[in-house]
Amino acid sequence: MEGVKQAIIEEYEITPYTLLVMPTAYGSRIYSRIIELEGEYISPFKPIEIIKRSCEYFGSSYDGRKDGTKKLIGITHKAPIAIDPTSSIFFFPTTSPLRPQCIWIAYEHIEHHQRIDLSNTTITFRNKQSIDVPISDSSFENQLMRTSLLKNRLRQRIEETERKSFYMFSPRTLEASETNGKYSSGIHKKN
Predict the structure, then answer these.
(1) Mean pLDDT value of segment 151-173
(2) Which residues, at least 6 apart from 15, have a Cβ–Cβ distance to it below 8 Å?
(3) Which residues contact 63 (CB under 8 A, 6 or more apart)?
(4) Which of 61, 89, 137, 157 falls 20 to 30 Å from 115 in CA-CA distance?
(5) In a domain, 190, yes or no
(6) Does pTM surpass 0.85?
(7) Rounded to 5 degrees, what are φ and ψ at 17?
(8) Strand arrangement, sheet containing 81-84
């Protein structure tokens, strides 16, 4: 990913094309390096600020998304976040989000990962881009499993809600109540 021209942008919300958001030194400040499928950007906001702004953009707060993760899968430390579950935008942190070196990675774009040493892992995304991140392979695998669990629980809830609403408002249910003896007109056809 080296040698890619990086545009500096003021406003940024995570999209289905975002691969990761990582901290980068910019003078004496911490900015974000944002890697997308087709390009890279630098933002004057820290990664956690971009995650928070993106949650808000999709109609929730970061704290609300964290609470949702806690309720669905019981995870509070290094919790994965459903930034926009309808677009399948799930991100997970490499360390505590309060730490300045925390990198946020898009679950959907990961093709595979490989251990470099005890504390570093190479991630290869579906578009074949690779990047080394300072997280042990076992911690990375754990974060993948947590994010998968969150995504599956959310999907189950959505499907369950759709099933319930289908049965509540299906045409058969409506027809049955209309032809029930209480609601019929009392007129019977004779054959």
Answers:
(1) 80
(2) 36, 89
(3) none
(4) 89
(5) no
(6) no
(7) -95, -5
(8) 6-8, 40-43, 29-36, 18-26, 104-106, 89-93, 81-84
Q: Angle formed by the axes of helices 47-57 and 62-73, to 10°?
A: 80
d(CA 154, CA 111): 22
What pLDDT digit, counting tens, does each position of 42-90 carry?
999 999 999 999 999 999 999 999 999 999 999 999 999 999 998 999 9
Inside any domain, residue 188? no
> For the chain, what is the domain count?
1
DSSP-derived 3-state class of residue 75: coil
CA 96 to chain centre: 17
Task: Single out the residue of 91, 74, 93, 73 nearest to residue 82, CA to CA.
Answer: 91
Q: For residues 154-170, give the mean pLDDT.
A: 81
Q: What's the Cα-to-Cα distance from 144 to each of 55, 60, 129, rounded to whole Å?
A: 20, 23, 18
pLDDT above 70 covers a percentage of the chain that reads: 85
Name the residue with higher pLDDT: 179 or 167: 167
Picking from 156, 159, 154, the residue whose alpha carbon sits closest to that of residue 72 is 154
- φ, ψ for residue 49, nearest 5 deg: -70, -35
Q: Which domain range does residue 44 map to?
A: 6-179
Strand partners, 121: 115, 133
Radius of gyration of the chain (CA): 23
Q: Tell whether 33 is covered by a domain.
A: yes
